[in-house]
Amino acid sequence: MHCSAHPECNTTCIELFISTSSLPFFVSWLNPLFRIGYKRRLEEDDMYNVLPEDGSERLGEELQRYAAKELRPPKLTKVLIKCYWKPYAVLGIFTLIEEVIKVIQPVFLGKLIQYFENYDPDNMDALYEAFGYAAGVCLSTLILAITHHLYFFHVQRTGMKMRVAMCHMIYKKALCLSSAAMGKTTTGQIVNLLSNDVNKFDEVTIFLHFLWVGPLQAAAVLGLLWVEIGPSCLAGMAVLVILMPTQTMFGRLFSKFRSKTAALTDNRIRTMNEVVSGIRIIKMYAWEKPFSALVNDVRRKEISKIMSSSYLRGLNMASFFAASKIIVFITFTVYVLLGNTISASRVFVAVSLYGAVRLTVTLFFPSAIEKLSETRISVRRIKVQNTLFICGIIWLSYWASGRPISPEPVTHSKSSLLSAILGELPHDKGVLKVKGQLTYASQQPWVFPGTIRSNILFGKALHPQKYEKVLRACALKRDMELLPDGDLTVIGDRGATLSGGQKARVNLARAVYQDADIYLLDDPLSAVDAEVGRHLFEQCICGILKNKPRILVTHQLQYLQAANQILVLKEGHMVARGTYSELQRSGVDFTSLLKREEEGPQAPGVETESRSPCSRTLSQNSEVSHTTSIRSAEPVQTVVEESRSEGTIGVGLYVKYLKAGANILVLIGVVLLQFLAAYILQDWWLAYWAGEQEKLNVNGTVTVQNGVNVTEQLNLDFYLGIYAGLTGATLIFGFARSLVMFNVLVKAAQSLHNRMFNSILRTPVRFFDVNPIGRVLNRFSKDIGQLDAALPWTFVDFIQIFLQIIGVVAVAASVIPWILIPLVPLVIVFLFLRRYFLQTSRDVKRLESTTRSPVFSHLSSSLQGLWTIRAFRAEERFQNTFDAYQDLHSESWFLFLVTSRWFAVRLDGMCAVFVTITAFEVEAGSVGLALSYAVTLMGMFQWGVRQSAEVENMMTSVERVVEYTELESEAPWETQKRPPPEWPSQGLITFDRVSFSYSSDGPVVLKDMKAMFRPKEKVGIVGRTGAGKSSLVSALFRLAEPEGRIYIDGVLTSEIGLHDLRQKMSIIPQDPVLFTGTMRKNLDPFSQHTDEDLWNALQEVQLKSVVEELPNKMETVLAESGSNFSVGQRQLVCLARAVLRKNRILIIDEATANVDPRTDELIQKTIRDKFRECTVLTIAHRLNTIIDSDRILVLDAGQIHEYDEPYTLLQNHDGIFFKMVQQTGRQEAVALLQSAKQVSRVGVDGNLVIFETAL
């Protein structure tokens, strides 16, 4: 515990325990933890610090060292063996001791029973010998208890070390993945490696030693049995020998299924990852159903494989339980038929010896093979190729304070230029020299989970003055004041809680705060409005950074005049370079880019050459821009802490779990099967038979028949017949039960997964803003993984053991009623201990689940920001953070290991006492039965109690899944009230007193809004960052339910189903989202359109040529989230989707922020042509995209500030819109005024008429 008193004393305590590894320590040092756990819920602070030799960094480095020693590319398996064989081999001694004792114990037992069989009250020597044997039985029980747990603890710890070291290496590799390699793997795959594959190391270490102990032990047992019952033992061993290869075959089959399942699981998690990341788009497009079908399809295939492997497991388990019955049956049938008489001592020695070897041969040995083959597959999957980069391409050298700007149409070359400088793109020829340290602001802003301050500092020390200066330059000051905790506000995964503009500014601030020599800025101005853009350009790019070389990629041409060097790129070639005036004179294609600037008549007095770049104010208005700078900022949602249940797991949860798998009748049938398959009757019959034989031997009844003396014998046919019948019944019911149980439990996993997924699809968007993606994925990968594989096995095992215990107790009590006397208190103490243990253990298990989430979140956010992390040379820091998260998880895992040992040692200790009490009792047949049962019971009882605790621990996964099946749901997708099929025919939208907030307790972002958008009208919506522009769209799409009324063509939107509403409006979103899958699926997931339609749509948006160049054209599968297209191209795909949908209402949400003017013009033109008959609402930062709208709606702090034709708005010199236009620079402002004037002339006649009819 990090208890304030002595945290270090606890660590030493653990170290001491591990070095001495003796039992007293096992007992005492965990007691304080259990006391705390019994009183209250355990928290992370209660856990012990991780031991130095278990630290993630240390283990990873060690494995790395061994890998480095190999000359050629190292074989992972070889490296692992070299690293861990020594400490692991030593543990084999424990196994040996344990197995030897297991073989000797039955021999002692037999000798003891023999003494009672030949009981002679006068023979004192025999009595002392008997006492010796009794002591031997008790001692061996105690030693078994100790060695068993020491062995298990140490092998599991070795497994943990291997897993932690592997995770460290996987993450290290992930940080070095090249762009090409990233195209081949996906986040989902790497997350799956970390969540499922490395866990195989935890399992494999437990069983490996049995690969050599098993055959040795079998040989020893065979020898002893030969002495005891002669050649009959060979019959029994023959069954074992047949069993081994069949089980080995099961193992092989099992690993085949496992590798297929793993691939399907990867697939499912990848799809889930995309669904969760793109949930906003999926909801706005009403695409839930195709995605649901996609996931269900993969899941169905996955479940069919899991079902097959579960049936294998069921057979494996049933054969394990049946093996002993068959072996004993065959042995004794042969024994009796060979003319021997049965005796108690023989029966019990044989049964016990077979029991000892059975476990090893039929359970541990095959498990070892199965786990080994699974681990080999995992190791194969983990070998991610290291791909290293060589930098190259173009030689760029800039002198201090040079700032080249590269404007260029949408293709890859601008960002590619920067990625080449960063060394992210391998080159074909040429040299690239970079002197000095780089820093980089990416085009799609990247933030990682943590506070805003940690995102900006990015590992640098905090210098308050510098920090303030950076915040001011990046226009973040006002946002910080509005946030609940200022810059210490925690932002979620992908910065879900910040607006696009805020993310972009944080991303820029991070680059500016670093003290670098060269600054690479990839279009940092696109996500912000004109005013903020101007502020960033003047105060930050030309302010704080004015003495540094900066390379700025931008589409905003009004800033070109300030550049020292301009680089014009086109399709990967440099078309021109020089200063602004040089390029103007040379008349390259540059001028067509600048066409807009030139069209506006030159305002007198604006000269382009003379002034020194950047020093001049670009407009008289820049003073204003300081005063109004970012008045309003948007509300920020904070990330909620992951929920963690408390208390016991109720019966209700078990009922929910089982009912998910089958209906009540099936469950009742299963219960009946359980009891029919009682495994005990057969043993009882054997004991009864031996007893009857004993009576005959003692009384020696002789009858006289026809004058000949005949010794009376038992009716063999009768006894053997019943014995055979019981054995047969046991087998049939045993197998049936096992298979039925597995079937029910795997079905439960399937239906819970489907319910959880549907619940996730139907929950409001806000859920995804406040829950990081890693947390949702954790439930879908780890928890569902538990439900698929581990839980059914443990559950069935527990039920079998439980029934066996009941059977054993019943038989024992029927023979020797007094055995119940010590049993009753024992059971009571056991149950109390179990309760006491579970109080703590459940919390430890829940902590283990919640401390795992950050590991995944950190991995997936690192993969998204790879370029940034590498540009800032922050790999080591991120690796350290990853190691810290791993260590936190190791703390809880280590606790989980030691607490279960604490429990098991106590149970075994009690059982040993129980055996000792039983050993010193009388009466031959019954002492044998009592003792052999006491020994069996001992093992079973503590295993049963531990499995029941294990089941309850695993039920926490069910609990976490069930919690997500009960999330709040948004309005229904379809309601009774369906709008008419051709609705909306006109496209008239009316807002009537609409207020909107993202959650019931969140701030109101739209306040009492009244507005009407007329049919076929083109409306521009502008406002500063955070004025509520995007919230207007959210209200229209009902991403959260607005207050007030919104009508479309007279239909109240809140009364119809969400799908009916959302399918009738098209949106081109702010962040274009593409999904993995073919290009066709991305355009038309429902397959509603013909090929011709699709090609025409691509033609309209000028993507046809791009798609035709792809290897399989329309059927080409895109990389994860469409990363093989540039942002602009992805935007065009979204436009093509809208073209296909042919809806009356189109909403464009800052869709052109990331594209250059030419693509922007293309998009605008397509919209004017294709959507002439539609109502179009455009949210924009670039005023030139909306200046030709019919009307412009100006929002400010969630209220309508102005709403009129652009020309009319520009007449009002106090209005916000007029000021925004002025801030674009004098030249641009004049051009905008001209455009507005032309629009107003055209629109004078038409508008009135439409307005009349609409009203």
TrEMBL record:
Residues 598-624 are annotated as: Disordered. This is Cystic fibrosis transmembrane conductance regulator. GO terms for molecular function: ABC-type glutathione S-conjugate transporter activity; ABC-type xenobiotic transporter activity; ATP binding; ATP hydrolysis activity; intracellularly ATP-gated chloride channel activity. Belongs to the ABC transporter superfamily. ABCC family. CFTR transporter (TC 3.A.1.202) subfamily. Gene3D superfamilies: ABC transporter type 1, transmembrane domain, P-loop containing nucleotide triphosphate hydrolases. It is a multi-pass membrane protein. Residues 357-596, 989-1222 form the ABC transporter domain. CDD domains: ABC_6TM_MRP4_D1_like (cd18593), ABC_6TM_MRP4_D2_like (cd18601), ABCC_MRP_domain1 (cd03250), ABCC_MRP_domain2 (cd03244).
